[in-house]
Amino acid sequence: MDPRTEFNSRLYDCDELDLDDELELELARLYALQREATKDMSEIELHNYLQDQASQSKKGYTDVVTALFYGVLTEPDNSRTHFQCLSLVNRDNFIAVLGKLHVLAISTRFQQLKPPVRDQILWLINELTNLNVQTIDSIYLCLFRQIRGGDLSPANVMLCDQMLRLCDLHKSQLDAYPRVIATAAYTFLRTITDHRSSQLAVLQQKEIRFVVSLLREKWTACMVIGRDLVRVLHDVASIPAISLLWDDILNNPQKLSPRFKGVETLLMTCTPKEYLRSRITPDMEVKLLYILQNLRISMYQRNLGWFLQRFLSTPENEPFYVDVIRYIVAGWYPSNQILQTDIVPRYVVVGSMLRSIKSTVVASNVKLALVYDWLFFKPSDNIMFIEPAMLLMERSAERYPYITAIIIEFLSFSIEEYYPPMKDYMAQCVACSMQTVISKGVIRSLMPIYKCPSLDEATREYMQTMFGEFLKQDAANANTFIPAMPTSIALQSPILSTNQSRSEEGEGEERDEEENSEEEEEEESEEEGEEEGEEEGEEEEEEEEATKRNTRKKKQSEQAHLVDDDDFDRYLYGETEPRRSDSEATSLQEADMNTEAEEDPIQGHEIENVNLAMVEPLESTVEEEKTLDKDTLLTTEVIQDNVPDSGRILQEEPEGDESEEEQEDIEMETADGAQDNQSYWIFGDSLNRFKSACIAIVAAVAVGDKKVCHEHLLIAKRNLQEILSVFLRMAISAETLAPKIVPHIRTVAACFPLNHLQHTETATSEDSVVMDSTQDPLDLLLITFWNSRSLPTARDRLVCLIACSAHNYKKGKHYLIGMRWWHFIARQVEQHTLSTMSIEVDWMPDIVICYESFVMYGFNSVSEEADNSRVDFFKHYLLQDIRLLARTNILSFHTILPFIFRYLSAIAIGNIDILQLLVTMMLPDQLGRLASQLHYGAIRIFGETSSSLSLVSSTELDYYSVMSLWQLLSSEIGGRQERIEHLFSSPSNIYMLQTHLCDEYLSPLLAIAASSHPSYRLLEAIIQIPPPASLPNHPCYRFVISVLNQWGTVAFELLQQALVELVSAVLEVIVSEIDDTDEDRKMAERIGGQCVALLKTWWSDPHRSETTNNFLQDSSLITQVMQLGDLLGKPCPKEWSQG
What we know:
single chain; mainly alpha; globular
């Protein structure tokens, strides 16, 4: 049944194809249960019921809050009542509500929210802000990102207006959140230019007044934006109200702030990534990062075209190009792992985006966004800020010289005109930028660009002016090869009209048909002539032609695999095209130059009018064969050499040369040749047909022929099905069969990388896999294992065969098979969940045992060379398998990971590497699912929290990853007293909190502490957290005071008892003169001093709970605390002795 007929969303305007939102399903379920339970209740009965449910357990509290939250969003008429109930049962300072709000605010489906729901979200934020709820700033930051630049739709304009009114109304409350203030200023400075039409004039004036007021009153908070604040202010400086502010920035900086030294201070400050990211919506960021992190160089154009068509296709959207380019250049940069693959580089995406810009003003602003960091670059800055512009200049010099020219000319123009008082400084920074990119190896030399014959003299003069010193130094390297933009990534226009594309395809097909008909006529005439000749001459000519054809292909494949070891940046920055000979390069350069001269409408490299004409990629002049001659068996080496990229798609550890790996496969295949007539004859000709089909598949993938690929994929799977059927019936070992089939299974599998789309259907039989063109021979091998898992003998033999596929070679794709194993199991889990509506998987233990056998099969082959134990070997192999799965298919990774923690607990629980991988790849919806499983104890992921918590201080994790780690930890140990005591009493954790605790971590820490009750051990540990000599406003102090206040409210008697025990124990050690070491005494004095100081701070806190005064009634406790204070020289308040 269609799920849309079963559930009608009250939050989202959904299409028929949209999946139901899992969060909403849970919210609606809890709300329905609560509404059913409370119908016909009076107000007093309702309050008593909610209080009772919220007090029973933490889960009960969460369910009550969740249901009321859903009521607020979906019932505007009753929202005030629901919010009053929320306030009544609130026990965590609305942390649970903020968690649900955050999920909605950062969701990629935010734009689909129904208008009344959006209004209720903003109303709820208004109420929470009035209550000064902590961490409300995160919701504001998320909603700023949902304001889409250049979008004049009523919904987006309304959101902008509502956020503006919300910030203006709560300006005083937001003073506590400097980042919100800075982000608001940056956001509305960018939207001012969008709202210049007469219909939006009122909104624009409100934005102007708000921004000017905010900048003048909170200039210090806004200064952290850095140089991009100057850029966006300059765009609106012509507006009279802002021009006065702009004049003060330039001429009267002290008027804004005594600490402000002038605009030079801003220009020399790099803009933090979070502000550039704030102008990209979560939906845009997901789609843009998918292109930059996953798509190969030859596959990105279609996705980029969809992206531009959706977000940047209208004249109103064009100014938003600037924000996107700034984000690509300085807001995100690729990791080293991405740089070492053929993922599309940033400079290629930027170059392709420039093609779609029509406005000269936008083109000028985009060029400034591209080179902005060059003008103020310091040696300590990140080289990734200047890398895209440099590579775009270098790689365009030969094929697109006008791109290189306009960037160099604009850079020179900016030095002279952007801010004349800093002209000399900017010239030095540009020179420093060039020195850095050369010294760091981004480019090898500047001379090849300077000497490139396609550049004009004016461009060379600009280069001589800006980079003269580098041209002199590099004179010795004048003949260095200049890396060109690969033909596979020719800067084609990413946005093409459908009719144009179809017409071009039709013309191409007509040309192909005409050429084919002419060739057929020539062949027929030749055949008629040959039939009149002698048959012997015909055979000799055919043999000679076949020999020439094979020789030509072998030479081409050998040339395609030539690697220039000296040209490292060709590999590092994504160039995958083979280097041509000098004659070929010259002829191609001449052809490109002639084409540009005929077709390029741009003459003279104008700065203000950039129209990047795109050159179509060169068509191959070599005729491609679309069928495999049955009488011609191409060797594996020749075919696979024609695929320079497919073997590296999923290569986890690129050790050695690819040709060496394939040669090992060939040696493996030809091993045990003496057994061919003894063992392999039972397979008939299935082995040869399977081998030939696999070779044809790889060849078809190399030339992009999907039709031929699908045909031979069907042939390969049918023959493999026959081979496996014979293998399971006959007494032939897996080690004997493996050399004949596993090299081809592995090579074909590498040609079909997984994607990040979730499969809706899962094949359950071998026949269905054979007929499915999206699945390869490895899928068939895995489904055969799956259907034989209940037969021990067949299952074990297939596991051994799969193990041979992974382990029987020395180099290359080590973890491809293991990654595909877990992806396959993840799909079976999804199918099982859909068919049984249960998350319990009873067959998983057997699958885990098979995986252990599969992995440990390779242990004996490496145990003599490695010192690792069996456990270390298995742990490393599992980590690499799931790491590759996470990079390849994030959905399968999150599906299978809970089962790994449950059934491989000895290996996975507390594994720092797996935890780091988990939080690094964490998605918001998956975070909620995993947190719920941890909360009710279905799985555990943390072992000794002292070691797991060390990740918090890791510099390798970003803010989102660290907060995800805290949330998972809170979900796992929340309410579990013993584990919470162990967490806070660990010396390493105490040290970590003393050195790394910040305000951002207080929320999850307080949630953990609030779920426990005070005890002697826990109180002793928490008192040690504030570092010595720290001030009361230190985060550690605020944490401890908050915990004491919470305990004093909900568990005063237990807190009082714990305090008595702690103070008595400390006094006993300090007063005693025997049986205690110096270390014990020093520890007691330190704890005692902290205890007295914290109690004094807690008592003097004006926001303490009313029950705090009750501890003064315990005369015994007060006497001991005052005695302790006197011994340690920390006198207590006189009011205590009077209490």
